[in-house]
Write a structure and sequence with these properties.
With about 240 residues, the chain is of the alpha/beta class. It contains eight helices and five strands. The chain has a three-stranded parallel beta sheet with strand order 2-3-4, sandwiched between helices.
């Protein structure tokens, strides 16, 4: 459950589809267990945490059979809004914790990696991400079956070589690293990938090109109240079978 991070944006495949860390985790679990696993992914790019903690959680808990594990990330798109409220986002995540506990389902919460160093208003986005990340451990303190993975403070993921050209989404190497971190936390020891080629240094000309190609369309959508996820459906809205 989540937004573009969990949907897999940035991890493009040759056929035009996207993979992403969550798909990679499902593959890893199937390989490790030597048998198929059931996997659903309700994440849609652009979704705010209210939709993730609401309709996506509703859909996940309505699956038959009931899931063994819920995995959630969210809040990144909220942080891009001027009316962002850490208190509101913490409250939404707290409701997910409560619902998972009531349903008897294990819960894994991820904080997304920190893109703020490469974005305008970096100090603001860094502060908002820090506040939300720091609040999560307290939500699951003492709860069995609840796990928190802190990707926000993964210094390695802060390196530009893990990020796409849009500076907001991980590239395939970044998704591979997150998948390895998640699998290891789930008891499937998985090495993180080699670092690869260093990212090209930022230039003024590159920053101008970035603003034209990526920032301008984003501002345009905000002005008309649109989202990059409008009209999109989850890629796995029900149980799919992942073979080892």
């Amino acid at each position: 459950m989540g937004d573009s991070f969990t949907e897999g944006v940035g991890d493009d495949q040759a056929d035009g589809s996207i993979r992403g860390w969550a798909d990679r985790v499902a593959d890893g679990l199937a390989v490790h267990g030597g048998e198929h696993v059931f996997y659903a992914n309700f994440a849609v790019r652009g979704r705010l945490l209210s939709a993730i903690a609401g309709e996506q959680v509703d859909a996940a808990l309505a699956l038959d059979p009931k899931p063994d594990l819920l995995v959630i990330n969210g809040g990144g798109n909220d942080m891009l809004r001027p009316d962002y409220s850490t208190e509101r986002c913490v409250g939404l995540l707290a409701s997910v914790v409560e619902r998972a506990a009531e349903a008897g389902v294990d819960l894994l919460i991820l904080s997304g990696p920190n893109p703020s160093e490469r974005l305008p208003m970096s100090a603001t986005f860094n502060r908002r991400g820090r506040e939300l990340t720091d609040a999560i451990p307290g939500l699951i303190a003492g709860l069995e079956g609840a796990t928190f993975i802190n990707c926000f403070d993964d210094e390695e993921l802060g390196d530009g070589r893990y990020w796409s050209e849009d500076r907001l989404h991980l590239n395939p190497l970044g998704h591979e690293r997150v998948a390895a971190i998640v699998l290891t936390a789930l008891g499937v020891a998985t090495p993180t990938p080699p670092r690869g080629v260093p990212a090209a240094p930022r230039t003024r000309r590159g920053d101008v090109g970035y603003a034209v190609r990526y920032m301008a369309p984003w501002v345009g959508r905000r002005l008309v109240g649109r989202s990059s996820g409008d009209g999109r459906s989850p890629k796995h809205p029900g149980w799919s079978t992942v073979q080892p």
